[in-house]
């Protein structure tokens, strides 16, 4: 009789421990799933259909954007000691064809006088000749 | 097979020789070189101080006023002012009144035995005002510009830049040379520096994409009516011919106008001090012949010459 009671108590305790263990494991799994869902929501990227594709500008339009911004840069105000004789792309007098005459002065804005170069004189010179090789030249004070 | 086309004529008060390397068909090169005398005449008509009707002299007549000038004259004055800045005023384009006071009023071939007056120090080069946007220039009233110390170098560069798209070239204006490229098979264009004492070649160099100019007191000397010996290298501070142990100085520099200014600066400073100063300047080399016959160079210059090295 005593053995029967002891066995029954053991069975009941085992059932309680087993039930508690299963409940603990099940609850822990649920908590873990809830945490995982919250983390996923925080780091989730938009769905593909939510992304708006912006086409990249091609090679010709990109410089145009820069050029539109360029006039806002006032170089001379930033560095008043710099004199910009010519902007890029403008011909220099030194790079003009050698047969060209000097450029006429631009219209004066505030000058008192406009001075033009005189008409050049006729200069007679011997015709150029073809040489077998370069002729050594001598550097000395001007004469 | 490359060819070298050669032309020689007198203008700007000196001898000019120009060489251009071309292809076997030299017709285009011949036509280009045939145009050069007229091109030089255009420059001289604008820049000469010995022609009363030149653009420069009419500009000088209006000292104190803003004047719109041609691009050629503007660039020359701008380059001269820049050279004055580089040399801290040792080179000064406002030296014309001083030259006139020393009797150098006519081209050297016609100078004769002129009268001289009291020395006139040059005006402050910083007072040259420029308006690049309208090609306007103003100099102080009473001052006047002489471009004799820089215009030949500028003109040589101008001509060489025009020719270089067609082939390697060497432009020599009165001993001031500008080389662009080199003849086929050569390290450069051969140039010699003359010994001012003897006239014989002193050293030979290869020039390629650089300039070589020589300035000295061995030539362009005259005696005034009072019997005083004068020369054309004026000290801007005193208005008198420079007193220096330098008889002749040759400078190599990528820019010929700068080289001309450096030559004056070295001459005014004297041989050793001048070359020491020159050595500190960017990409510059120099050779000095002193009155006593000694020849000095900067280290950067010595490696340029060959063959006829000094004994």
What distinguishing features does this structure have?
heterodimer; A: 143 residues; 3 helices; 3 strands; 38% helix; 6% strand; B: 311 residues; eight-stranded antiparallel sheet; 8 helices; 27% strand; globular; disordered C terminus
Descriptive account of the structure:
- The complex is a heterodimer of chains A (143) and B (311).
- The longest helix of chain A has 42 residues, at 2-43.
- Chain A has helices spanning 2-43, 61-69, 75-78; strands at 113-114, 129-131, 137-139.
- Chain A is mainly α and 143 residues long.
- Chain A has a domain at 19-46.
- Chain B is α+β, with helices and mostly antiparallel strands.
- Chain B has helices spanning 27-47, 55-60, 71-86, 96-101, 151-163, 256-269, 271-279, 299-302, and strands at 3-11, 14-22, 67-68, 129-131, 136-138, 169-173, 176-180, 189-194, 201-207, 210-216, 221-223, 229-231, 234-235, 240-241, 246-253, 285-290, 295-297, 305-306.
- In chain B, α3 runs parallel beside α6 (256-269).
- Chain B starts with a strand and ends in a 5-residue tail after the last strand.
- Mean pLDDT of chain B is 91; it is low at 307-311.
- β1 (113-114) of chain A pairs parallel with β3 (67-68) of chain B.
Summarize the structure.
The complex is a heterodimer of chains A (143) and B (311). By secondary structure, chain A is mainly alpha-helical.
* Radius of gyration of chain B (Å): 19 Å
- Strand percent estimate of chain A: 5-15%
Order of helix and strand elements from N to C terminus of chain A: HHHEEE
DSSP strand count of chain A = 3
The coarse overall form of chain B would be globular
Going across the biggest sheet of chain B, name each strand in turn. Answer: 1-2-6-7-10-15-16-17
């Amino acid at each position: 009789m005593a053995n029967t009671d002891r066995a029954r108590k053991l069975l009941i305790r085992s059932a309680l421990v087993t039930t508690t263990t299963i409940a603990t494991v099940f609850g822990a799994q649920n908590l873990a799933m809830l945490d995982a869902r919250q983390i996923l929501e925080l780091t989730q990227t938009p769905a593909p259909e939510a992304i708006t594709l912006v086409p990249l500008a091609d090679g010709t339009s990109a410089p145009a954007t820069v050029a539109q911004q360029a006039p806002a840069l006032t170089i001379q105000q930033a560095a008043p000691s710099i004199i910009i004789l010519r902007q890029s792309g403008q011909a220099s007098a030194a790079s003009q064809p050698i047969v060209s005459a000097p450029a006429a002065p631009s219209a004066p804005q505030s000058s008192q006088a406009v001075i033009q170069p005189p008409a050049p004189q006729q200069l007679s010179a011997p015709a150029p000749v073809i040489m077998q090789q370069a002729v050594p030249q001598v550097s000395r004070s001007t004469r | 097979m490359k060819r070298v086309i050669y032309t020689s004529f007198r203008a700007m008060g000196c001898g000019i020789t120009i060489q251009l390397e071309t292809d076997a068909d030299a017709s285009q090169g011949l036509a280009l070189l045939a145009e050069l005398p007229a091109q030089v005449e255009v420059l001289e008509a604008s820049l000469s101080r010995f022609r009363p009707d030149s653009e420069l002299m009419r500009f000088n007549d209006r000292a104190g006023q803003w004047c719109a000038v041609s691009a050629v004259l503007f660039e020359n004055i701008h380059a001269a002012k820049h050279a004055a800045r580089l040399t801290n005023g040792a080179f000064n384009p406002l030296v014309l009144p001083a030259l006139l006071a020393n009797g150098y009023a006519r081209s050297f071939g016609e100078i004769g035995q002129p009268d001289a007056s009291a020395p006139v120090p040059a005006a402050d080069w910083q007072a040259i005002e420029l308006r690049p946007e309208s090609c306007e220039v103003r100099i102080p009233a009473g001052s006047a510009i002489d471009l004799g110390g820089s215009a030949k170098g500028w003109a040589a560069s101008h001509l060489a830049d025009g020719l270089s798209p067609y082939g390697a070239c060497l432009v020599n204006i009165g001993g001031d040379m500008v080389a662009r490229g080199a003849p086929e098979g050569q390290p450069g264009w051969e140039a010699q520096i003359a010994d001012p004492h003897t006239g014989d070649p002193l050293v030979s160099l290869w020039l390629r994409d650089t300039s070589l100019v020589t300035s000295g007191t061995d030539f362009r000397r005259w005696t005034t009516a009072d019997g005083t010996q004068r020369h054309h290298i004026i000290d801007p501070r005193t208005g008198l011919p420079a007193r220096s142990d330098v008889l002749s100085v040759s400078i190599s520099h990528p820019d010929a106008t700068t080289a001309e200014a450096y030559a004056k600066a070295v001459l005014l400073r004297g041989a050793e001090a001048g070359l020491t100063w020159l050595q500190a300047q960017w990409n510059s080399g120099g050779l000095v012949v002193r009155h006593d016959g000694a020849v000095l160079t900067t280290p950067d210059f010595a490696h340029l010459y060959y063959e006829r090295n000094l004994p």
